[in-house]
Amino acid sequence: MRWPFGKRDKDRPSPGGAAHAAPAGARAMADFFAEAAREIDAHIAADPQWFPNLPYKGAMSKDQARQFEIEKRAMWRRVIHDARRSDLKALKWTTRGDELVCPQCRANEGRVFAHGQLPELEAMPLHLGCRCELLPERP
Ligand SMILES: [Zn+2]
């Protein structure tokens, strides 16, 4: 998995070649997955119809769909987290642009969050089945 941006600590040369502790604020991907699992499971517990209501259909089992939702959520959270720690100018909310996009997400299509607005973006709720992406905005 490649991220569109971000400065991963392991890509930086470490002084003297010695391993060093991650700087304050750095988070492991496992933390994002654990947090996303809690977030998704809370959504699932609150909506008995979550599975049939997903906008993507196909051969996915309930367990696979839950795992997919967790992965998407962890990535979404990670993108915002990395953007906040980078010098990126902004993130743009991008929907799939099809008829399955919900009204809530459609309203956010193309919305640009400047670096200073990333905490606001981070606090915005997301629904299960959201297929939106955050794209880096470069000047
Ligand atoms: Zn969405």
Main pleated sheet: 3 strands, antiparallel
Return the domain count: 1
Outline: globular
Mean pLDDT: 86
Helix content: 25-40%
Give the cofactors and ligands.
zinc ion
Describe the protein's architecture and organization.
With 139 residues, the chain is of the alpha+beta class. The protein has one domain (27-137). 37% of the residues lie in helices and 9% in strands. The chain contains 4 helices and 3 strands. It has helices at residues 29-46, 62-84, 103-106, 118-123, and strands at 90-94, 112-114, 133-137. The chain has a 3-stranded antiparallel beta sheet. The longest helix has 23 residues, at 62-84.
Task: For this entry, give a set of tags.
37% helix; alpha+beta; 3 strands; 139 residues; single chain; binds zinc ion
Secondary structure blueprint with pairings:
Blueprint: H1 29-46, H2 62-84, E1 90-94, H3 103-106, E2 112-114, H4 118-123, E3 133-137
Antiparallel strand pairs: 1-2, 1-3
Bound molecules: zinc ion.
Zinc ion (ZN) binds at residues 95, 105, 130-132.
Give a quick rundown of the structure.
The chain has a 3-stranded antiparallel sheet with strand order 2-1-3. 37% of the residues lie in helices and 9% in strands. It has 4 helices and 3 strands.
